[in-house]
Design goal:
about 475 residues, 11-stranded mixed beta sheet, binds iron/sulfur cluster
Length: about 475
């Protein structure tokens, strides 16, 4: 009987998509608005969307303008036990709601204000719940901190792989050695040094990494995007993500001119940096008014997108890929993934020829056979555009009430929130909340409560230590 059960488990786990993931994807697809149910939509077909923590360590030691956190965030002390119990509670909820296999940001606040051991424990909890954690940081820490979180007291790696998103740009005040940068170029060495920490970790302990470069875009640094990409793409970043500034979070840190930053204006500058058109319509993550994504790779200084949205064959390829390999392979063992690929291909053998044809098209675009293909470096370009807090609040009211907005700005906000690709779990209400709602609506009250629960140490507390 036990053998029969074991064989049944293996059969389920090696299906092209396992039943738990299939059910979570179906629920997610059903919840998308009609505007997002389009060919090439990854949410509900390949994954359920990205996730993030909230209220786990709100404090930060930088002063960014803008800052998406509420004014009270810095009145909450960093507290390891609180962080770990909240991360555990939120991850258990996300696991129940969204199934196994998702990307989740460990985000506050500034993650490196956690002790290295608490930081490592939080990553471990997220992995245990079937999440690939990405620590979101300003990057102002040294190798000793990184090693202490990545390696245990016996000098053994705690994890095979680490993911970090590093926010680094001129909107930030407080970085060691660049307290008030006046140009993005002044930060290129800091960007390089951050990547080198992880190169060293790999060389010494074999721990691989995925590094995302995050940059807030304002009217002041818009025309410096291209130089950031051109000067830094070879440093080791796997993703360049740009966030046009929005009126959300701490109002004291807002500046004029954010609404001048249209998506096309920002994307044009990203394309200028990449040196090529960056197609984003063949495959999309949620609503393209929130997210534009181009996957591709550099061969030396030449960037080539994986998909050309002007090419019908590439668009068809995306659908073929979704149908042949439904669900995702996140955090699955190599053996299980190999069996799943095998069963997927056996079910749809024609996919092999279609993949080969697509690879040929990509190869031609990248310069043909005589290229040093062994130097291919995958890099993803992303633009993630938050919604202004006032529009989010109005649209969230409609979603809560089950009504539909009529004013065009709010209709747009409501559709974007319903297709949200970046959610936070609230086990106490049973809700999954878009990050725009978290930062634009819920953070002020949440941080007020946390400031009472976890007040900053007083002078007397500090003196008595
Ligand atoms: S967090 Fe906001 S901007 Fe981001 S995907 Fe969700 S709704 Fe869109």
């Amino acid at each position: 009987m036990r053998l029969f059960q074991r064989l049944r488990d293996i059969e389920e786990a090696t299906r092209p998509v396992d039943p738990e993931t299939e059910a979570a994807l179906a629920r997610r697809w059903a919840s998308l608005p009609a505007s997002a149910k389009v060919p090439g939509q990854l949410i509900g077909r390949k994954f359920t969307g990205c996730e993030a923590t909230h209220g786990v360590f709100p404090q930060c030691d930088f002063a960014c303008k803008p800052c998406y956190h509420s004014a009270d965030a810095n009145k909450v002390r960093i507290d390891g036990p609180h962080t770990l119990s909240e991360v555990r509670r939120q991850m258990a909820f996300l696991r129940r709601e969204r199934g196994f296999g998702a990307y989740a940001q460990l985000i506050g606040g500034e993650v490196s204000l956690l002790s290295p051991t608490d930081h490592a424990a939080a990553i471990g909890i997220m992995r245990d719940h079937g999440r690939i954690p990405m620590s979101f940081t300003h990057g102002d820490f040294d190798y000793d901190y990184l090693r202490a979180l990545a390696v245990d007291q016996h000098d053994r790696p705690r994890f095979p792989h680490l993911s970090f998103a590093c926010h680094i740009d001129t909107t930030m005040l407080g970085r060691t050695g660049a307290t008030k940068p006046t140009s993005e170029a002044q930060l290129h060495d800091h960007r390089r040094r951050f990547c080198e920490l992880f190169d060293r970790l790999r060389a010494e302990y074999g721990i691989s990494s995925y590094l995302a470069h995050n940059m807030t875009v304002t009217p002041n640094n818009l025309d410096q995007i291209a130089d950031v990409i051109q000067s830094c793409h070879g440093q080791g970043w796997r993703m360049f993500s740009f966030q046009p500034a929005a009126y959300i979070g701490n109002e004291n840190r807002w500046r004029d001119g954010y609404r001048e930053l249209t998506s096309d204006l920002v994307w044009d500058e990203i394309q200028r940096g990449a040196g090529t058109r960056l197609p984003w319509a063949a495959a999309q993550v949620g609503d393209t008014r929130c997210n534009r994504v181009t996957w591709g790779a550099y061969l030396r200084d030449r960037y080539t997108p994986l998909l050309d949205d002007d090419d019908d064959a590439d668009r068809r390829m995306v659908e073929t890929w979704f149908d042949a390999f439904p669900g995702n392979f996140i955090l699955r063992s190599k053996a299980l993934s190999t069996l799943r690929y095998g069963r997927s291909i056996a079910r749809r053998p024609g996919v092999v020829g279609e993949l080969a044809a697509w690879a040929g098209r990509f190869g031609d675009r990248a310069g043909g056979r005589r290229q040093p293909w062994w130097r291919l470096k995958p890099v993803t370009f992303v633009m993630h555009r938050f919604i202004d807090a006032a529009d989010t609040a109005a649209a969230w009211d409609h979603i809560q009430a089950g009504t539909t907005a009529t004013e065009p700005r709010i209709v747009e906000a409501q559709e974007r929130l319903e297709a949200c690709a970046y959610s936070m779990g609230h086990p106490e209400t049973g809700q999954l909340v878009p990050a725009c709602v978290q930062h634009g609506v819920l953070d002020p009250e949440e941080n007020r409560r946390l400031a009472e629960l976890l007040p900053l140490p007083t002078r007397r507390d500090r003196a008595s230590r």
